[in-house]
Task: structure prediction
Amino acid sequence: MDIDSLSTEAQIAYRAFVDMGASKKEYFDLLQDLDVKYKNGGGPSIAENLQLEKLLERHDKNVMAFNTAMAGVTDADARTALIELMS
Result:
């Protein structure tokens, strides 16, 4: 199954799912890099903390967009196909 076989609503939800996963990865990658960088003392700079905040805000928006898009997938078969593709 691929995205083109999904209903329009499910395609929107799938793209939101992909965006949500990407923003999560970007946030956790930076968090991990900072953890390694400051493992032996020190801490993130103001700029690094602002970047983390910005990434988390973007991820929060992507989560909300995904939840909204999922609510728009009301057809049971379309929802099942979407969940299958997301798995």
Notes: DSSP finds three helices and no strands in the chain. Helices lie at 8-37, 46-71, 76-86.
